[in-house]
Design a protein that fits this description.
It contains seven helices and five strands. The protein is α/β, with parallel strands linked by helices and 226 residues long. The protein has one domain: Rossmann fold (3-Layer(aba) Sandwich), CATH 3.40.50.
């Protein structure tokens, strides 16, 4: 393939996804969404990752989810849970991946890109419904039907290379492909200095992944109260 759009949040998974795409595609265009998330730090992390991994271009698109609400990531009145919870957690953002992929699909058509890469994972994840293979298959079918490229027989493919990878394997793959994980930010609720809380779902999954991979975790965490 010659061109792809890669959804890049600035986190561990999306950074590895960009590195995989760079190994498979001649030119990768990173797309970061400013969706009214709790903190702006991940936007800067995405910029650093895109530059470090040699993205051919990097755009930040704005789609404000805060008016929808219903998620701890977009509504500051809702606390980020510090313990695992049953069912779909309150950090789930309604329709997020549907809208992210739709925005990427539009840009991919304009770029004549053959694929969109997304860092969705259905193994070590928080149970979000829009990270499942059934959702990605359905969106790929939508992309075929809804675009000129699809109608003309050149559908834009949806790639999720991490979908069935445990977090430790994602980390080892990223390291092999040159990802500097110190540039990435996974925490749902970091402090002003960008230090991870160490207790949210995302921090726990990240720390466990580094332990299982046998690799030092470069994340700086907030000091815990004694």
């Amino acid at each position: 393939m010659t061109k792809a759009v890669v959804l890049l949040s600035g986190g561990l998974d999306s950074a590895t996804t960009l590195a995989i795409a760079r190994s498979e595609v001649s030119s990768c265009y990173a797309l970061t969404i400013d969706y009214g998330q709790r903190h702006r730090l991940e936007l800067e992390a995405a910029r650093c990752v895109a530059q470090a991994l040699g993205a051919a271009g990097h755009r930040v698109a704005t789609f404000d989810f805060s008016w929808i609400g219903g998620s701890a990531l977009t509504d500051r009145r809702i606390q980020v849970p510090q313990q695992p919870s049953a069912g779909i957690p309150i950090t789930y953002v309604p329709a997020r991946n549907t809208i992210f992929l739709a925005l990427a699909l539009g840009w991919a058509e304009v770029l004549n890109a053959e694929a969109i890469y997304i860092g969705a994972n259905a193994i070590d994840y928080s149970g979000y419904p829009d990270c499942r293979p059934e959702f990605l298959d359905a969106f790929a079918q939508l992309a075929k039907l809804a675009t000129r490229a699809g109608v003309e027989g050149k559908p834009i493919h949806i790639r999720a290379p991490l979908l069935k990878m445990p977090k430790a394997e994602i980390i080892r793959t990223g390291i092999r492909l040159g990802v500097d994980f110190a540039l990435t930010l996974s925490c749902y609720d970091p402090d002003a200095q960008g230090r991870g809380c160490g207790t949210c779902d995302s921090c726990r999954l990240r720390a466990e992944g580094f332990r299982n991979a046998g690799v030092p975790d470069p994340t700086i965490y907030q000091p815990r109260a004694e």
